[in-house]
Amino acid sequence: MIHRFTYALLALGTACAPAASPSASATPGRPSFVITNALVLDGTGSPGRRGAVRVEGDRIAAVGDVTPRAGERTIDARGLALAPGFIDTHSHADDDLFDKPDALAVVSQGITTIIGGQDGGSTLPLANYFARLEKTPAAINVGMYVGHGSIRDSVMGADFKRAATPAEVARMSVMLEGEMRAGAIGLSSGLEYDPGIYSDRAEVIALAKVVAPFGGRYISHIRSEDFAFWQAIDEIIGIGREAKLPVQISHTKLAMRSLWGRADSLVRLLDEARASGVDITADIYPYLYWHSTLTVLFPKRDFENRTAAEFALTETSTPGGLLLGRYEPNPAYAGKTVAEIAKLRGTDSVTTLIDLIRESEAMRKSTGRSTQSVIGTSMVEPDVEAIMRWPHTNLSTDGALNGPHPRGYGAFPRFLGVYVRDRKVMPLEEAVRHMTSLAAAHMGIKDRGRIAPGMFADLVLFDPATVSDRATPREPHLTSVGIARVWVNGAEVFADGKTTGAKPGRVIRRQN
Ligand SMILES: [Zn+2]
Question: Closest Cα to residue 323, out of 369, 297, 291, 299?
């Protein structure tokens, strides 16, 4: 049954979306097509409705009771769900996008927009990156944060293991202003990583204050996700309060045994901060394990300290829960756990962890590049579900186009399959809101994330009954099932399990 709800959707639309005429006459020069017989999930959280969507050029032209014109191309959705293209607010796909512009890992999940420059790391200057991306576009839209760590590195170089001086903060501020003018969404930080870990709160607040007058935002891999978690939460709330800008916690997690079960306390703290005027939000990926470097297990960087190693192997994770993704000093260790490697080396797990870091740090120092990565199991399901359910948490992948963590290929389908369909963490239409309009709002993107006339035609057609991830830590590059077709700016980029070769992606500059 087809309902007439075009105008209801128009009424829901914000003033920011340019009005497009849902009239019956075609606009010359703008090829159109109609997706019929779809369950339209418009991204606002409203229940799905049977209907059709007309796309004209790069925009959605009409929604609801749409009758294809004579000769107009129609695509029969066969009752599948049609949602706004998913928006990934914490992605590392920007790293390899020029090598893999079809972005299979991304589009095969139904994601049409990624936000890069995360964890304090971005290419500089962004103006050059944007210009290159506009000259040689990718399949997906890309927005970027500017990385605190990258700016810090430019200004402080090798002498970074200390707080910045006022003169250095001033130089960072000038760079930051330039990046904001180029269209950065805001400032990202990675305060658990070098060099951000050596900054103090005052440095970050000073830089956040540079971003705020531009209408910019702050997003952070917070200073600790384990032993100093509550101080790290206090810090990001303080940054939002003092610099007066929206702040978002990246890949929110309670990654330590003694924190397990405390998600409700976290949500209460965040709600209190919001009630007191701090616009704090969060994103999360749907896994119990993270992907990072072995060194993050040692927040004091005391890699030879057996007590610290014991803490990492009992509180933060376990010897069987630390799976090496990459280990250049001995590539055969990739895909093995610390427990397995300890057995191979005929020693205990604590000694093994210390040795693995010593060997990889020596190689890092001689080569100047990162030489290892690890997938660490540190979280529990009740916390993941409670954080997901928070109305201000949107979904993210934290994934890369060619990374060892399965989230790069599977995060969004896994959320829809495991958490929404199987465990019923939230209704489907609400889940789609967390992946679309909520994510857009958190990034200040006004013309994407909803199916309504005038919005950009980023769309995903999927089967809620079968959508599932297949990627695992041992086979991280398996594409998901149940994602049928994906359009970016009105052009089809994924269909029948394959990318189409189209590269309609745009640069998304800060919108205000
Ligand atoms: Zn991170």
Answer: 291
Question: Cβ atoms within 10 A of the Cβ of 181, count?
Answer: 13
Q: What is the 192 CA–ligand 1 centroid distance (Å)?
A: 8
C-alpha 32 – ligand 1 centre gap (Å): 40
From the CA of 347, how far away is ligand 1's center (Å)?
31
- Among residues 84, 135, 134, 91, the alpha carbon closest in space to that of 112 is found at 84
Residue 215 Cα to ligand 1 middle (Å): 23
Q: How far is the CA of 291 from the centre of ligand 1 (A)?
A: 9
* Burial track 387-397 (b if 16+ CB lie within 10 A, e otherwise): bbebebbbbbb
Residue 350 contacts by C-beta under 8 Å, 6 or more apart in sequence? 306, 309, 310, 313
Distance from the Cα of residue 321 to its chain's centroid? 24
d(CA 155, CA 28): 52
Distance 395 CA to ligand 1 centre (A): 14
Query: Which amino acid type is present at position 443?
Result: M
Spatial separation of the C-alpha atoms in residues 438 and 39, rounded to whole Å: 20
Cα angle vertex 338, ends 335, 344, to 5°? 85
Q: Is the pTM of this model over 0.85?
A: yes
CA 250 – ligand 1 centroid, Å: 6
Nearest to 183 by CA among 225, 230, 141, 238: 141
Beta carbons of 83 and 460 less than 8 angstroms apart: yes
Q: What's the 444 CA to ligand 1 centre distance in angstroms? A: 21
Sequence-distant (6+) residues with CB within 8 A of 159 are none
90 C-alpha vs ligand 1 centroid, how far in Å? Answer: 8
Measured in Å, residue 221 CA sits from the centre of ligand 1 at 5
Q: How many Å apart are CA 425 and CA 508, to the nearest integer?
A: 31
Each residue's pLDDT expressed in tens, for the chain with a length of 512 residues: 333 333 233 333 333 333 334 444 555 567 899 999 999 999 999 999 999 999 999 999 999 999 999 999 999 999 999 999 999 999 999 999 999 999 999 999 999 999 999 999 999 999 999 999 999 999 999 999 999 999 999 999 999 999 999 999 999 999 999 999 999 999 999 999 999 999 999 999 999 999 999 999 999 999 999 999 999 999 999 999 999 999 999 999 999 999 999 999 999 999 999 999 999 999 999 999 999 999 999 988 999 999 999 999 999 999 999 999 999 999 999 999 999 999 999 999 999 999 999 999 999 999 999 999 999 999 999 999 999 999 999 999 999 999 999 999 999 999 999 999 999 999 999 999 999 999 999 999 999 999 999 999 999 999 999 999 999 998 999 999 999 999 999 999 999 999 999 999 999 999 97
159 by Cβ neighbours in 10 Å (0-12 / 13-18 / 19+) ranks as: exposed
Alpha carbon of 497 to ligand 1 centroid (Å): 29
